[in-house]
From TrEMBL, chain A:
The keyword Protease does not apply. Keywords: Endoplasmic reticulum, GPI-anchor biosynthesis, Membrane, Transmembrane, Transmembrane helix. The lineage of its organism: Eukaryota, Viridiplantae, Streptophyta, Embryophyta, Tracheophyta. GO terms for biological process: GPI anchor biosynthetic process. The chain crosses the membrane at residues 21-44, 56-78, 90-113, 125-145, 165-182, 202-222. This is Phosphatidylinositol-glycan biosynthesis class F protein. Signal peptide: none annotated.
Length: 231, 930
């Protein structure tokens, strides 16, 4: 779990409850990010002739560097308090979020037992950037440095509105998926994908997708619930 | 009201200690088959005690002028070439007519042609190995003629050298010269016995060729020389090819084809020198496997594929004796051309006895095998060279029956001596059955057969022959019943005992859990279904228990525990962020976990260097060179600084807990001990210039001994203080600090220089666990009895932390993971009990002793303490017992697994010892604290 909510002091407390994002919109956002993840894999395979197993660090680098601009741009449109914070500022802070999130992810991974050694360093760095794209980047783009929003959404698990569902549930999904993805690593099957960080990546991507599906269905239920209430 | 629960509380841990001991004892009786190694050796002169004819009976004057020294039997071959092909399956050698055809069959054609050719003095045997089918145990079994078990009592721990009497040892005693080449396991088992040896490292499974090429390089030149009597060449390629690629693979077929050419050359050399006066005039070539393998290349268990291996034997003398059909074990098949092909069968158990008989040396003392008739017949062609008037079969039978007589006497002697001197002997029923069989055969021998052999009048040939046959049959019956008894005793698990032990343990787990839940329902506690914390605890404990079902997770147990500990730390961090308290502690805890994991990694690389199951992958690499001056400086300084920090911690603890009276003095004593330890380390290192100090105070043993004495005095003071001021002093903090500090100084001293740093990390992590206790519900239910309920997560964290400490302090669950050096800190001479105690303190010091005694430190500063402490101890006991139950389930399931003796059984022993120690300490701690 990336409990890296050690953020700056509460600069502004603006909770804009714009439940403007519909489940369909969320689905399209997910579709775009998933599409570009696929593009990342495609580029890695067809342009560089590598995959996660043969060259994890290059593949991971391609994945996160293709995925990152898309996620940053898309989620910056969904930022909170758009009247106070311009789109370009949101993109700028998401870059900061990416780096600090990668740092937090790397620390968490090392505490959990990721190998520390010079030959693993690039893999760990690129992996943590990819994890940061899944977990921290959307949140920084949307919340910025609003500690109350972070705290409410991640620590207290009380997301409000569809956008926060979109941020929190896939992020938790990716971390839990990565956690489970580490389980096959010690087994003696001698498969190349058991190396750090390959199966953890698969786990994280899988967990992220499960989180996305879960959040979509929650949004769907939530909407129905609201409709019922209205009716 | 106050005294009643106190009574109960003290007895409950004792009851669980008893239940666990009984369960483990029962299980161990079924699982850990033990055999006592006897220190006795056979000598040539022993044979005069037997009722048999000496090898130079007075009537055979023709033999007495031979210049060879005679021992138990008349030697029939002069030299033996033993080529061991590791993991040689029966279908690698035996012709494919016996099996459904597969691509790896019929590759060793040179041996098949020899065995099934006309005029041959060669034979292929199906050889049965006994489990455990691992190379080391098999070599031991082959050479001692016994059935090695996991716990061969008397085996010197650590060094694998065989101390029991064995075939190799007998060869040396009888003046035979041995040459060995190939697998270096032989030189580990027999460090001094070889006249010449060319060992090659065997641990790298991925290397198919180093050992084999080394063997080949030395084999051919040696075959031409005459400076040896027995040659052993051990090839490993097939075993390694099986492990890596499996049986049905090109590398395996290539290996077998390579062996075929090697063997062809060997046979050529032997035959070219086989003429009269040649070096190999009377040589026997034996090509054998030590065990089989499954199609995946695994071995170690007792399945047919693993135990069925093969043996090829050939004598360079062309004339052979056929065995009477009663004793012929061969099974025959027609090959496609209609040629008759027969393979015989032999037990590996009989190998040592048969070879001893062939070479004419005394049989190993502990051998329970018998001389195999067909293999013996292959070599005995030299018997009837000058005695042509008798039929060959009869002559062979006469010599064979005498050999069997000596053999039977030797086996009976071993069984008797073993039964008298072993810890766990045979039952009297079995003994009397065996004795009856033996005395019947022996009676028959003395009354009739002996006379037939001694006064050979040549008459009544048919009656004589049938008498001889009956005698041989009687002996063989005796041997088979001995082997059956030995197998049931030494190779077969008693499944019902194992299941009983497991069942008792499961019942005790349920009872223990009930004790905790029952405690919860008392008025002190808040009863509330299954809380999140309890569910999470259950989840973590169950994951850890399930992880023991796979050998991979057992190998990486330290990492698994660390992973789970870090997971609990992250969860706590999340809660602490949520509640906006203790964030600093949560981060420090994660940092300490990271420190421990680095330490665990270093420990694992040490383990990988010796383990046969782990590949030593250097995941840990420092940029600094190991002898960088800054690094050496840091290594010298850091432990001493840590000790200084520990002294400060104790000082603060005294001040904070308001220690008074005896508790304070005990804690001050620990500070003194710490100071002495720091002084010792400073004087051992070169950079402080304290080198002269050790001479001044008189030897390097003074300081450790002083520390031990201080520790003992402290414990004595604590015990007496508890007895005399029981109930008066309720200041728990100071009592715990006193007890833990008193125990910690010897532990730190024994753990060496890393000990102080680990203790510091342990202390910090424990402090964080204490501060984070109950963080997830700190603000949730304010006001209503919030701290009285047991926080199970922190006990799980404490228990996981102690497991991590076990691995972080450089231990692992194997006997080579014990640090024997620690037993000699402060002492030079060896006294078993004293050194064993020191070794136990070193091994389980951090993980069990400090962990159990330090558990009260986790209790928050208010609430109903005594009851909660009891619950915490029960929970801690449940967690330990759960892991042991999982281990026991795992060894029951995997009892025929490849790694059962290398991995599961040591893990079982460590866990069981740990559980008993935990139970004992919980009893003591609850007597002290409650």
């Amino acid at each position: 779990m990336n409990e890296a909510k050690k953020k700056k002091t509460e600069t502004y407390v603006v909770v804009s409850r714009d439940g403007s994002m519909s489940a369909l919109g969320a689905f399209f956002v997910y579709l775009i990010s998933g599409l570009f993840l696929g593009v990342g894999f495609w580029v890695a395979r067809n342009k560089f002739a590598v995959d996660l197993v043969s060259d994890p660090s290059l593949t991971l680098f391609l994945l996160w560097s293709i995925e990152f601009p898309v996620v940053a741009i898309v989620y910056s449109f969904l930022r909170k308090a758009p009247e106070k914070c311009s789109w370009s500022k949101a993109v700028g802070r998401s870059i900061l979020g990416l780096i600090s999130g990668a740092f937090m992810n790397a620390l968490g991974a090392i505490a959990l037992g990721a190998p520390v050694g010079m030959q693993y360093l690039p893999k760990t760095i690129h992996w943590s950037f990819l994890m940061s794209v899944f977990t921290f980047l959307p949140a920084t783009a949307v919340f910025g440095a609003s500690w109350t929003d972070w705290h409410r959404a991640f620590a207290s698990m009380k997301p409000i509105g569809n956008i926060e569902y979109m941020i929190v549930i896939p992020a938790y999904g990716a971390t839990v998926g990565g956690w489970f993805g580490a389980w096959p690593m010690p087994l003696d099957w001698e498969r190349p994908w058991q190396e750090w960080p390959i199966c953890v990546c698969y786990g994280a991507i899988g967990g992220c997708i499960v989180g996305q599906i879960l959040s979509l269905s929650l949004m769907f239920l939530f909407r129905k619930h609201k409709n019922l209430k209205v009716a | 009201m106050e005294t009643h629960p106190k009574r109960i509380n003290r007895w409950i841990p004792l009851a669980f200690l008893l239940i666990h001991s009984v369960a483990i004892l029962i299980f161990t009786r079924g699982f850990l088959l033990t055999r006592t190694e006897l220190p006795f050796h056979s000598t040539c002169s022993d044979a005069s005690l037997s009722p048999c004819l000496s090898p130079n009976p007075p009537i055979h004057h023709s033999y007495s002028n031979q210049n060879q020294p005679k021992c138990w039997t008349k030697p029939v071959v002069d030299r033996v070439v033993i080529i061991v092909l590791d993991a040689l399956r029966i279908d690698f050698l035996a012709p494919s007519a016996f099996f459904p055809a597969k691509p790896w069959m019929d590759k060793l054609t040179v041996l098949q042609n020899l065995a099934f050719g006309n005029e041959s003095s060669a034979k292929i045997f199906k050889a049965f190995a006994d489990p455990p089918t691992t190379s080391l145990q098999r070599l031991k079994g082959l050479t001692t003629g016994g059935l090695p078990t996991f716990v061969d009592v008397g085996n010197s721990f650590g060094a694998p050298a065989i101390v029991e009497d064995n075939f190799i040892n007998q060869l040396v005693l009888n003046g035979k010269r041995l040459v060995m080449m190939g697998d270096d396991t032989w030189t580990q088992l027999f460090p001094n016995q070889f006249h010449k040896s060319y060992p090659f490292p065997s641990f790298n499974v991925k290397d198919l060729d180093t050992v084999d090429n080394g063997c080949i390089e030395h084999l051919f030149p040696t075959l031409y020389k005459d400076d040896w009597d027995v040659l052993i060449a051990h090839f490993l390629g097939v075993d390694h090819a099986g492990h890596i690629f499996g049986v049905d693979s090109m590398p395996m077929i290539n290996k077998l084809e390579q062996y075929n050419t090697v063997l062809e050359r060997v046979v050529d050399i032997l035959e070219s020198q086989a003429g009269p006066g040649g070096v190999h005039e009377n040589t026997m070539l034996i090509v054998m496997g030590d065990h089989g393998q499954t199609l995946n290349g695994d071995h170690g268990g007792g399945t047919a594929e693993e135990v069925e291996t093969t043996m090829f034997a050939m004598s360079t003398k062309k004339h052979t004796t056929s065995v009477p059909p009663e004793f012929d074990t061969s099974s025959c098949k027609q090959d496609p051309d209609g040629k008759q092909m027969c393979i015989s069968s032999i037990e590996q158990l009989d190998f040592a006895a048969t070879l001893s008989a062939l070479l004419g040396i005394s049989f190993p003392f502990g051998s329970i095998g018998h001389v195999n008739p067909e293999l013996y017949a292959l070599g005995s062609s030299s018997l009837n060279l000058d005695n042509t008037k008798q039929p060959a079969v009869k002559e062979w039978m006469k010599s064979y029956v005498n050999v069997l007589c000596v053999n039977a006497w030797q086996v009976k002697r071993y069984i008797d001596v073993y039964s008298n001197s072993s810890v766990v002997g045979f039952s009297s029923d079995d003994m009397s059955r065996i004795s009856n069989l033996y005395s019947a055969a022996e009676h028959n021998w003395s009354n009739s057969v002996k006379h037939i052999l001694m006064y050979n009048d040549g008459n009544e040939d048919s009656t004589n022959t049938s008498a001889l046959k009956a005698q041989i049959a009687a002996y063989l019956k005796f041997f088979s019943s001995v082997a059956e008894l030995a197998r049931s005793k030494w190779t077969e698990f008693n499944l019902s005992l194992m299941i009983t032990g497991f069942g008792i343990l499961v019942i005790s787990l349920i009872l223990q859990s009930l004790a905790i839940v029952h405690g919860d329902n008392k008025p002190y506690g808040v009863s509330s279904g299954l809380s999140t914390g309890a569910a999470f605890t259950l989840f973590i404990v169950l994951i850890r228990a399930c992880s023991f079902l796979s050998n991979s997770y057992i190998l990486e147990e330290g990492k698994v525990a660390n992973f789970l500990l870090a997971t609990t730390g992250l969860i706590k961090l999340r809660y602490s962020v949520m509640r906006k308290t203790m964030r600093k502690e949560a981060f420090v805890f994660l940092a300490m976990v990271s420190v421990l994991r680095v330490s665990i990694d270093i420990g694992l690389t040490k383990q990988a260097a010796t383990s046969q199951f782990m590949s030593s992958s250097p995941t840990w690499m420092l940029g600094l060179a190991p002898d960088h001056p800054a690094l050496t400086y840091a290594i010298e300084i850091a432990p001493i600084l840590s000790v200084a920090a520990l002294i400060c911690v104790l000082y603060v603890a005294i001040a904070r807990t308001h220690s008074e009276g005896i508790w304070k003095y005990v804690t001050v004593g620990s500070m003194l001990s710490y100071f002495l330890i720091a002084l010792l380390w400073a004087s051992e290192s070169k950079i402080f210039g304290f080198d002269g100090l050790l001479q001044v105070i008189g030897g390097r043993n003074i300081i450790p001994q002083t520390v031990y004495v201080i520790g003992l005095v402290q414990l004595f003071l604590l015990a007496s203080a508890h007895m005399f001021c029981s109930g008066k002093d309720k200041n728990w903090g100071s009592r715990t600090v006193a007890l833990v500090s008193a125990c910690s100084s010897p532990v730190i001293l024994l753990s060496g220089k890393q000990g102080s740093m680990l203790a510091l990390a342990y202390l910090l992590a424990g402090y964080c666990i204490m501060r984070l206790e109950g963080v997830e519900r700190r603000t949730k239910s304010d006001g209503q009895n919030k701290f009285s309920k047991l926080d199970s997560v922190c006990v799980v964290q404490w228990s996981l932390l102690s497991v991590c400490m076990f691995f972080a302090s450089g231990h692992w669950c194997a006997f080579d993971g014990l640090r024997y050096g620690a037993a000699f800190v402060g002492f030079d001479e060896f006294v078993l009990i004293r050194q064993a105690i020191l070794l136990t303190i070193e091994t389980f010091g951090f993980s069990i002793i400090l962990s159990v005694f330090g558990l009260p430190l986790l209790i928050p500063s208010h609430g109903e303490k005594r009851h909660q402490l009891f619950q915490m101890y029960m929970l801690y006991g449940v967690i330990s017992a759960t892991t042991v139950t999982a281990t026991i389930l795992c060894v029951t399931i995997h009892r025929r697994h490849l790694m059962v003796w290398g991995l599961f059984a040591p893990k079982f022993v460590f866990d069981v010892v740990g559980l008993i120690l935990t139970d004992v300490l919980i009893c003591l701690a609850s007597a002290f604290y409650l």
